[in-house]
């Protein structure tokens, strides 16, 4: 079938299922065009889906996923049976009629009304539903802090209940605790639950690192007889995955008795021969050797870096590696918004009027999936505000800067064997005719003034300019002296003037340029690998690949 259109506004994990469904629809359309019947079309779609092999493997593995796979396979068999019956009754009917036939079927659903169990049975119900009823034996499990009592504030997001009290004339005294009524209500509910037993009452709780029994246990009369509450060791559940996990823990525990470790290894070998998932050490995480320890580039290959690469590697080499090789989401809303703003800023710089820019914004925003309509409207307003901020900045700086180029490509070789390539948002000339690189930012958090002076990306821009990256400069035939660089934050206007917040970097002298040459050489060596260091920095909280970073808790689960 035909290839599906690209879905740039969706992340890859959301766009891929849509593409797979589209391919299945294409298979069905091809079968229909060939004149095949309902059963043949259904069979072709089922074969193209590739679900049979996966569901059969899950079913054979057992466990919770295996039970779900069994149900899914049964549903597919029932669907084919329904198609066979439908074709037998209506031999000339098509796929559309079969789909309508399935849609029109009325399947009985679960009733919400209370039903009396037939014969001897166990009733499972909430404490509220137990009011007015009694049983010979009652079990109240999970009596934990956080559940008994649950002291989370009740009410709506907008506080409608407080508004109702105010309208009704109920006084609101801030000195009265809001937790006390909740605690009293939770205590009454607990007493209802434990008072339903005629002869035997069982109450259980769990004590662990993050769990502790409820304070209500101290209020039970029988609990006072225990200075220390009795603890029961949890028996192993009859789940194969739990058994495999326990055997693996014993085998990997150096403190366990050698005989016990040997027995666990023997049982794992038996399970591995039977094909149980996770039993064979070849499938355990962290035991396989690295696929390669070769660097990313050969010793004679030139290293190509961009100014943004220098900044990222200087901040955290591991983040650069992961983002460079698939860890970044170019379809995220900030990335799409930033690309759109840069395109519109370029139009403004090229002389487009406000109507043309607004029309381009409308067309571009139609392709952006910003989520809820109210959020999309807010983000669209924010983009328009950034454009207004850029216009103000552009007018305010024309007395000191002259536009030379917009979205200008650059290429230079400041260090032998290392090439710098990239693109500058704006190339300006100051009053002395020196090049000034302007980098437009759409982020909401400007760097500090000191960080702006030492900004690696701006420094590499200036280094490239000094190395002849811009031959159209008036002083291109001479030694180029950069005139500084600027970061312009459109999302952070200055309250007094409405212009963008700027972070300046002074023009470098010869010693400073030599220092940045050394930095570029070090970055090129780091980018070659094969080892990449993880460094803690101010951007760790917003890092898109922190789930694979060993410095934070989510990453430690992956890397250790």
Q: Could you please describe the fold and organization of this structure?
A:
This protein is α/β, with parallel strands linked by helices. Helix content is 45%, strand content 11%. It contains 18 helices and eight strands. The strands form two sheets. Strands 3, 4, 5, 6, 7 and 8 form a six-stranded mixed beta sheet that branches. The protein has a two-stranded parallel sheet with strand order 1-2. Strand 7 (485-493) and strand 8 (500-505) form a beta hairpin. Helix 3 (51-61) packs across helix 4 (63-89), helix 10 (307-315) runs antiparallel to helix 16 (456-466) and helix 12 runs parallel beside helix 14. The longest helix has 27 residues, at 63-89.
**N/C terminus separation:** 44 Å
Write the element-wise H/E pattern from the N-terminal end onward: HHHHHEHHEHHEHHHHHEEEHHEEHH
**Overall pLDDT confidence:** 82
Q: Main sheet, how many strands, which sense, barrel?
A: 6 strands, mixed
Number of helices: 18
Residue share in β-strands? 5-15%
How does the helix and strand content classify structurally? alpha/beta
Record field, number of beta strands: 8
User: Rg, please?
Assistant: 34 Å
Overall geometry: extended
Low-confidence stretches: 1-7
Task: Bin the helical content.
Answer: 40-55%
What is the topology?
Layout: H1 12-33, H2 38-49, H3 51-61, H4 63-89, H5 95-104, E1 135-140, H6 160-167, H7 179-194, E2 197-203, H8 240-251, H9 258-273, E3 303-305, H10 307-315, H11 317-327, H12 333-349, H13 354-366, H14 373-396, E4 402-415, E5 418-429, E6 435-441, H15 449-453, H16 456-466, E7 485-493, E8 500-505, H17 510-528, H18 553-559
């Amino acid at each position: 079938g035909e290839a599906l259109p690209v879905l740039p506004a969706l992340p890859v994990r959301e766009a891929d299922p849509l593409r797979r469904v589209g391919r299945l629809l294409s298979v069905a359309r091809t079968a229909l065009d060939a004149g095949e019947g309902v059963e043949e079309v259904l069979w072709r779609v089922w074969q193209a889906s590739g679900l049979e092999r996966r569901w059969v493997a899950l079913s054979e593995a057992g466990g919770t996923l295996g039970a779900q796979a069994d149900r899914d396979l049964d549903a597919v068999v029932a669907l084919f049976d329904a198609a066979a019956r439908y074709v037998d009754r209506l031999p000339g009917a098509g796929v559309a009629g079969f789909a309508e036939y399935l849609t029109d079927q009325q399947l009985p659903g679960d009733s919400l009304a209370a039903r009396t169990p037939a014969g001897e049975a166990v009733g499972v119900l909430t404490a509220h539903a137990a009011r007015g009823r009694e049983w010979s034996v009652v079990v109240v499990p999970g009596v934990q802090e956080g559940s008994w009592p649950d002291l989370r504030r009740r009410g709506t997001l907008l506080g409608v209940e407080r508004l109702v009290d105010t309208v009704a004339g109920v006084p609101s005294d801030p000195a009265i605790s809001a937790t006390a009524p909740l605690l009293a209500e939770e205590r009454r509910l607990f007493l209802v639950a434990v008072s339903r037993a005629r002869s035997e009452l069982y109450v259980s709780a769990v004590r662990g690192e993050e769990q502790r029994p409820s304070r209500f246990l101290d209020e039970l009369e029988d609990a006072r007889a225990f200075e220390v509450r009795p603890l029961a060791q949890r028996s192993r559940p009859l789940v194969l995955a739990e058994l495999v996990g326990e055997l693996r823990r014993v085998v990997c525990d150096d403190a366990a008795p050698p005989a016990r470790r040997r027995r666990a290894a023997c049982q794992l070998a038996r399970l591995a021969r039977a094909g149980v998932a996770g039993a064979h050490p070849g499938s355990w995480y962290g035991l396989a050797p690295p696929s390669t320890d070769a660097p990313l580039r050969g010793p004679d290959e030139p290293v190509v870096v961009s100014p943004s690469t220098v900044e990222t590697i200087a901040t955290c080499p591991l983040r650069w590696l992961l983002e460079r090789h698939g860890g970044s989401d170019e379809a995220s809303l900030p990335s799409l918004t930033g690309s759109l703003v840069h395109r519109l800023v370029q139009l403004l710089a090229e002389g487009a009027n406000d109507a043309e820019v607004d029309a381009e914004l409308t067309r571009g925003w139609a392709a952006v999936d910003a989520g809820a309509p109210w959020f999309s409207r807010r983000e669209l307003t924010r983009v328009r505000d950034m454009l207004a901020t850029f216009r103000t900045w552009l007018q305010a700086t024309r007395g000191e800067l002259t536009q030379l180029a917009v979205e200008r490509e650059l290429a230079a070789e400041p260090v032998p064997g290392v090439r710098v390539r990239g693109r500058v948002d704006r190339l300006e000339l100051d009053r002395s005719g020196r090049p000034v690189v302007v980098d437009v930012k759409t982020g909401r958090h400007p760097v500090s003034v000191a960080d702006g002076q030492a900004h690696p990306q701006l420094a590499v821009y200036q280094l490239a300019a000094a190395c002849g990256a811009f031959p159209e400069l008036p002083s291109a035939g001479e030694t180029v002296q950069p005139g500084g660089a600027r970061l312009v934050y459109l999302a952070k206007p200055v309250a007094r003037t409405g212009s963008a917040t700027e972070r300046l970097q002074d023009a470098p002298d010869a010693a400073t340029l030599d220092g940045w040459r050394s930095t570029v050489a070090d970055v090129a060596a780091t980018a070659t690998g094969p080892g990449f260091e993880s460094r803690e920095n101010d951007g760790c909280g917003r890092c898109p690949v922190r789930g694979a970073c060993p410095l934070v808790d989510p990453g430690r689960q992956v890397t250790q």
